[in-house]
Amino acid sequence: MSRKGNCLDNSMMENFFRIMKSELLYAEKFESPEDFTKALEGYIDYYNNKRIKSRLKGKSPVQYRTLSITG
Predict the structure, then answer these.
(1) What region, left, alpha or beta, does residue 6 occupy, with left being phi > 0 and alpha being psi -120 to 50 degrees?
(2) How many CA atoms lie less than 13 Å away from 9 in the CB half-sphere?
(3) Where does the Integrase catalytic domain start and stop, copy by copy (predicted)?
(4) Domain residue limits, the chain
(5) pLDDT band at 40 (very low <50, low <70, confident <90, very high)
(6) pLDDT reading at 31 higher than 80
(7) Which DSSP letter does residue 21 get?
(8) Among 34, 71, 66, 69, which Cα is nearest to 49's?
């Protein structure tokens, strides 16, 4: 961590929140906070285990991490 307010410190989380908002939050209407919490839990599972990324050689984050540990 560097100085307070440096955007580079939070770039990975800021990127995740931007993607999550466009793919989940703005794409659906939620009836209650509980509905959003359930959908968010499902989205995090999808994001980590199923959503492929070209930057990770066409693998999900978990697949890529496993590949780097075993390879």
Answers:
(1) beta
(2) 6
(3) 1-69
(4) 5-66
(5) very high
(6) yes
(7) I
(8) 66
